Amino acid sequence: MWDRAFINRLRNEVPDWIEKGWVTPSGEAAIIGDAEARAAQGIHVIPIALAVIGALTLGAGVILFFAANWDEMPKITKLIVLFGSMWIAYAIAGRGLSGSARASGVIAHAMLLLGVILFGANIHLIAQIYHIDAHYPNGVLMWSLGALVLVWAVPSQPAAVAGIALATLWSGMEIVEFSQQVHWPFLGVWALFAAPALYRGWKWATCAALVSLGVWCFTIIIDWPYDERGQSLYLLQVFTLLGVAVHLAGRAMQNIPRLASLSTVVRRTALIGALFAAHFFIYVGVHGLPWYSWTGRDFNAETWARAAEAGPGIIAFIAVFALAALALAVERYRRVAAAHSRRDMAGIALAGLAAAVMLANPFMPGRYADAVLMYVAINGTFFAVLVWMVVDGYRSGERFQVYSAFVAYGTGMLSVYFMDFFTLMERSLVVMGGGAVLIAGVYLLERQRRQTDTARAGGAS
Amino acid sequence: MMKKYRTYMLALVVVLQTAALMGMVAIKHRTLTMGTPVVLETEPIDPRSLFRGDYVRLNYTIGSLDYADVEGDNEFERHDKVYVMLRKDEKFWKAVSIHHETPAHGPDSVVIRGEVQYSGIWIGGESRDGINVRYGIENYFVPEGEGMALERPAEGEEVSIMVAVDEAGASAIKAVLVNDEVRYEEKLF
User: Fold this and answer.
1) Global pTM?
2) Residues of B in contact with A83 (CB under 8 A)
3) Taking CB atoms and an 8 Å limit, are A154 and B6 in contact across chains?
4) Is B3 part of a structural domain of the chain?
5) Does residue B20 belong to any structural domain of this protein?
6) Residue B89 located in a structural domain
7) What are B62-101's pLDDT values in tens digits?
8) C-alpha dihedral over A388, A391, A397, A402, to 10 degrees?
9) Burial of B130 (0-12, 13-18, 19+ CB in 10 A)
10) Looking at the 3D structure of chain B, how many domains does it have?
11) How high is the ipTM of this complex?
């Protein structure tokens, strides 16, 4: 639908371009023909989305139909209905896959998704029929593995997205309900889904895999044992650095032809994850500082964050991800070394500074002054990174990066506004200063844009 | 060629998924047919919530184990695996010892496997050293509406559960008994 709108716009615009002499009359047919050919080959999101919604609705309807008539059916009939519906969905999918029309491919993928849904429904209904009451996350794992087999045998992106969501649910159940501090087996299943997503260039599945990894990290933090809560700070460091490393890997993917098409989705999703994790650094409690100013600034001087040891495992992860992020940043710098700018150098310097601060933090002694120092150092570095992101994004035309940085900055300012650790006067100064910096930044960027536009217009004339 | 290959692969997926589902039934059926039948006493915490929707929540006497009443190991943590040796008392099978590993046992006893839900139990309003164990036989689905007939058993009626326990300690509900008479019995089809 959107391709058609683009072609119609081209049809309206090209005669003007011919009049201005930018395009030859023979070029018009070539441009329109090329756009139409690409539209015909391209992936149409709306039909796929509608087919997937149709599959989900059909699946829900089938399950409700069974539920409404469940008690009247003998066991054998129930089994025939359960297996039969799953086989029919896969049979239609098989027929669609062997068809040549694109529409049949869309239907095939919708039916594969329906097959996965029915496989999961069958697991739970058979468990009900035979009173199987096992370790219940295993049911979700089995469902996810059913989708995984399908993804590897008959490549299907919707099934991959569903399987990744199920694997995340499985791991979440294990972490929250069964006190698995870090549920390592998830990473194995996750990798088995991520590999075909990357290999086949599936954007949605890649995005789902990264979001899933983010949700897994977040679940670990919120369910971290209460008596080791102080380690949350170091875990946030691990996850922020992991996000940064994946983001930089996404940038590096631009140079790998096979993965170039996934670069944008990896960069953007990882950026959101890294910013989401880093924004928690603004909360004083995370650093072991008292939440309220009226309890006294030196209250709980030997703070629990400082008292909590990061432990060799967490420190090793911080070191690995910090060094990976740094190495990727340097690698990127080397690639653009021929045309390196102050902006690139500032980026590398900031990456080095962030890595140094993150690596130093777990080794700081457990005093109040050290907690305050690291609070300022970490958030100061984060603020500098946001400023760099705005400038870099603005110069390189990466709007997403600019908007993300502004959202992170705004969220941080808003958090300070509500933070009782600071006095009203301190909050007032911070928020006023933050607003002034924002306005000044926008003014400077806008002025620069106008200067660039003027220079461009001068060059063109 | 590629399309044919995809069709074969899809057929393989269907076979694997079907086998996995049938495997669930087969494993359960094996426990039911090969396992030793034992009758367990159930004691609902709150008779008003014995039936929730269409499934019965069963609270077995062997689900709450006081270290003072059983032999064997006595240091368990949440989510630990636990092996409970059962021996027939007068009418019901009772827990005699608890273990971290499968213990050797004679023909007059069986070992059922469970998972520690939490340690520290309440018996008769008193806190005791012990464990609450889940065996995977705590829920029993009943046809809609029929649960109500068992929810409030008539005066003198007693509900008990016959469970099959196999040599690996896995268990499955074989029958629901009311006054020792089979009310529901598990069959393959």
Assistant:
1) 0.82
2) 18, 21
3) yes
4) no
5) no
6) yes
7) 999 999 999 999 889 888 999 999 999 888 999 999 999 9
8) 70
9) buried
10) 1
11) 0.83
